[in-house]
Structures are given as structure tokens and as C-alpha cells.
């Protein structure tokens, strides 16, 4: 009967623990995702801020997978460089160890108090979706998690006297390789090295897990965490793949850096890491919790020592996707805003990148690439607006610079509209069933493609001849378009024919506007 | 993409193209065509055996025409298929790349 109650307590404890940790992550991602994005976007270039944001995010969100997802979206959007995302993820790993430390402390009274407050609050406050309710849901999830640990402790204690469990724990605890494999396999199952470590902490506190095996189990759990992320991200590409590989690589790095110290200490008896831990904390369970913290610190230290080779390796193995590269400005940067002459030149070069993508967008209208180009255009506009804002105060613009600034902003707007028309035309073409209308779509695509390539030539080298050619081949197309519509008046898919020809006419008109703006800028120079 | 160059007269080169003037075709034809455009006063491009012309192919022809025009010459297109002609007319480059139906018309246009 005692054995049955023990098993039921362990199962119930595990259920509460896993439900608690999952609900906590989900609620905290909802609550903290947006503030984390904002904080990182604003302060992401300061090393101290990166360390603080990462640690706090890891401690609160308790999900490195969730944080990886946020970072990937920010890197893809060009809001965060990969060199910042990498250390931030490692600091978040360190932050997750807060839960492991808390689990090593007996929090029975606090747990029941939290459970009572949050449960009663959620019963009374029935308004869903409010921040206050979400906070209480997070508190309830945390309380469930700790209650699960208490049940786990109680159940393991009841079974601990049993010969079978004691024998299993003794085998795991006294055989280093078995303990390592158990830690790795358990983490692959739970997908959380902190969860595996917490269970090992409890088993150690109850005296069920011998010290040597417990240490290697935690090392195995850390490696299992890296392997788990890499398995989950096996199909990832670009930045996402880079971050997934990075997570796996740094977990391995932490284990590789600490393992020699542990194995050497076990083999020779020299006072190294484990002796140090024993000197700081008496209880074996807490020593494991601190070992978990040291693993994260070792990974951080390894990264800061090898940041450049790691960055180069990952960029070679998982290069950023075209859409990700396009969204990141290559020329403009905030510090250049104050120097009007340089700022305008840089903005013009950045705009040329947008023009250079138009023909490719028409041929292959990829929504991810289109979104990246849209973001780049917004970034150019933001940059030019900042230059305009400073121009009045500091007179930083060169003679004629104000006209050039106005011209560049007008060009930017024309390019945004042109890109949208080109993207829509490309989409309409690829969705067109075979037939007369599809032939028309092909002809329009090849024709407009040539016009866009000439726009690219003019954007990169605004010689009078290039601009003249662009003006010539983007002249009024209304007569040609009307003739096409008349010719295809009986064709199937009339709506698509009208849409295609309208988009074509609009795109050519916008190219003409762009050519005139280029000419006006060239004349002013 | 096949390309053959013959001399129609002392001042006129005739470039015969065959196949698809797509991205791969244009890449193969770009350099030799630029050499012809740079070294002859007039050029007649026979497109009768070209069944497809892509945007990059049009751009190569347009740039060749501009090179020739700079030296006071002309580039004419001979007998393009109706599909190719439709593409050229759609983007309105027939002023820059006039179309002729036979050699006699071409020679008359070059002399005029």
C-alpha cells in the first residue's frame, strides 16, 4: 500500500511539475515576449544590457526554446544582429538555473501560499486576457510546479526504503557512464535539462543518488538539452539553424570544459570543482544545483573566448537566408545621421539595394523576401526622417542637401509602391492557369523585368544616359495596355487580365516617376 | 543559344540568333554581342529562330542598341516571332529596337 501511494505521488508530482513548467513558460512568453523584444531592440548593443536581459528573460520565461524563437524572429526582422543574439541566449540559459536553485530549497509553505492566493484570485477574477490575470496564472503555474516537486519528494521518500528503487538508484549513481546516459535520455524525453536536474537534485537530497553518478547525470542532462534543441531544429534554416546549432554547440562546450575537472578529481582525488562546491554548500542536492549554474557559466566563458571562430563556423554551416540578409541595412547606420553629406550618400546606396531586388521579386514573388524589402524600405525612411529631424537644428546638410533629402524620401515612397505592385503582379502571374491570359502574364513579366533591370542600372550609376534610357522605356503604356485588354476581351479569366494589365501599367508609371526623380536629383547636382 | 555573325556589307553586321534568349542564353550571348555592337556601325539581329526572349535578353539588346546609337549607328531586329514581338511592344522598346521584315527593308532603314 505504501509502495502504491509512493508511485502515485511520484506520477502525480511529475504531472504537476511538467504542467507547471509548461504553463509557466507559455504564460511568461505571452507576458514577457513583447517587453523582451522591446528591451533587446533598444539596448541590445550594450554588453551589460544583453547579460541582464538574457538572465532575467531566462529566469522568468524558463524556456530557452521560447527565447530562441523570439531571438530568431528578431534576427530575421533585422532588429537584432546574430552577434548579440548568441550571448543573449547563453545568458538566458544561465537565467533558467534560477528555478534549479529554487527547487533545491524547501519552499513548502511558500508554495501553498502561492497556490492559495493565485487559485482564489483566478476563481474571483473571471475577466480573461487581462495582464493581472495572466500574472496570477503564471503564479499558479509556479505553485503547481513546486507542489509537484513536493509530491515527488514525498513519493520518492516513501519508495526510497524499497529495495528495488534503492538498487536502481545505486546502479545509476555508482556507474558514471550509466548516469550520464540516463541524464541525456531523460532530457531528450523532457526537453528540459533544468527539469532533469531538478529531479536529480531531489533524489540527491533524499540520499537516493550517490554523488559521483549525480554529477555525471547533470552533465548528461546538459548535453541532452543541446541534442534535444538540435533534433527539434533539424529542419531549421538560416538564422534559426544558426541559433539552434549554437545552442547545441555551447551546451557541448560547457560539458567539455567541466568534464576534465570532474573526471580528474574523481581519478586523482585532487581538490578541484566538486571539492570547491562542497566547501561552499553542504547539502548534496544544492551542490548539484550549483554545478548546473557552473555548466552555464562554462558555456558563457567558452563562448566569449571563442566568439569569432564560433560565429564564422556557424555562418559557414548555416548561412543567413536571402530574406534575412535583405532586411539588414548594409549602408545606413544611426551614427551617420548627424553627417548629412554621408547620410544622404548611404541612404542612396541602400535604396539601390531595393531597386536591385525588383526584377527578382517579379520573377520569384517570395512573401518572406517581400516582407524583408518592405522592412528595409521602412528602415531607410526612418533613417531619412531622422536626418530631416536633425537638419533644422544643426544645419548638418551640405548645400542643396535639403532638396536631395526631399528627393530621396520621394524616391523611397515610389519604390515602396513599385515593389508592392511588382510583388502583386508576380503573385498574379504564378497563380494564373495556362491559357491566353497566362501568355499575356509571361509577356508582361519579361517586359517589365527588362524595365526594372534598366532601373537597377540607373540606380547604381545615375549617368544621364541610363536615366534617359529608363525614361524612354517607361513611357506611357496606356495605349498598349488598352490594346491588350481589347484583344483579350473574350479570354477566360477576365478579372485576372484586368488586374495584370492594371498592375503592369501602375508599375511602369511608378518607374517613370522614379526616373524623373533620378533626373531631377542629377540635374540639381 | 546559338549565335552566328556574318557581314551583310562593309558597315553592317548580321547576327543570327537561335533558341531561347533566356537568362542562360543571354549570359552566353552578352559578351560576343557586345563585341559586335562595339565594332560595327550598324547591326541587324535576326530573331526569326528565337522562340523566347526574357527580360535579361531584352536588356542586352537595349544596351547594345544604345552603344550603337552613341556612334550614330542603328540596331534593327529582323523577323521576330509574334510572341517575341508582343513582349517588345508591351514594353515599348520598338523605337529603340525597330523591327524589320526582310533584309531589303533593313538596308533601306540603315541607309535612311
UniProtKB/TrEMBL annotation, chain B:
Per UniProt, residues of the STAS domain are 10-110
Recorded hits in Gene3D superfamilies, A to Z, give:
STAS domain
MF terms in GO: anti-sigma factor antagonist activity
Residues annotated as coiled-coil are: none
**Family statement:** Belongs to the anti-sigma-factor antagonist family.
The protein depicted here goes by the name Anti-sigma factor antagonist
Q: Which taxonomic lineage does the organism of this UniProt entry have?
A: Bacteria, Pseudomonadati, Pseudomonadota, Alphaproteobacteria, Acetobacterales
